[in-house]
User: What shape does this take?
Amino acid sequence: MNRIKFHVKKGDNVEVIAGNYKGSSGKILQVLPRKQRVLIEGVRIIKRHLRKSQDNPQGKIAEREGPIHISNVRLMERTEKKTKTSKKKTGVKAKAA
Assistant: This one.
């Protein structure tokens, strides 16, 4: 199983460096590795028409983020997660009888 590695990951703050949304920035919500695209919070908002259902009795026009190619984003700062530190256990010395 090959895992594709990218220069950005979920939760990173990035800036768009090319395309129609050049100059805008936000946090990565999702990485789509097979399509080489990312969803960025507040960038490329698209409208999705939803038909009538129990959840939306009137129907609805929902706004959500659209994907941007991963090569068009630059990493600004990475939010670091706390790393686990392991404590060494010191063995109890056996008493000599």
In short: The longest strand covers residues 25-32. The chain has a mean pLDDT of 88.
